[in-house]
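Good morning C.,

I know you're traveling, so I'll keep this short. The sequence:
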Amino acid sequence: MFSFTRPTSTDVERALEGYSRLNLQAAVLDSRQGLRVSRLPAGFAHDHSRTAIGQGRKVFEAAISAFQEWKQFDLGWVRVANPAARIEIRQTIAVEIYALGLWSLNVSEIVDVTSVDVTSVDETSVDETSEDHAFGFIYKTSQHHAEEGEERFLLTFDPKTKAVHYDLEAISRPRHWLARLGYPAVRALQHKFARDSHKCIREPVSQASREV
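The tokens, ready to paste straight into the viewer:
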């Protein structure tokens, strides 16, 4: 899982083959509502961040396209190692991380998906009962992951205000002994991931924002 050398394509393939179709289930997070328990299991930390990334249907469409290309992970020190993967239930995702002089490959399975037909997003027909449109997913970590937990990635479009938001939420606790040993550093990296992910998802939609 941890190495001084970068995972090869063979390493990625083996990890994906070994941890595919695990039939995991989301137990703590809900795609639309987020945290759905009043008390976290022992040892778990909860993180939630939400930012406005623009306004209008074009921005929402651009953000969805960015999600589908895994731009929210394209941070320089983090990337999805199987970027051709689709956002669909039971899809296995391998996230490559380089931090503190170590490489790691962390495998998770998508357990829930929220999708929307963007052609149905009508900015001109809105009433007080109109609900937000949303696109996103939850994945749950496998045994081949430094952390145990779930993470939610969600884009929302409010038809009343035209605002587009990016929600990132996670519950986690260390699984690998190195993650337990370096827990303060791990928590700092988790917070850095959230900041960087919000920044990176805004960049692909900036052009769409200027066009609105």
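Safe travels,
E.
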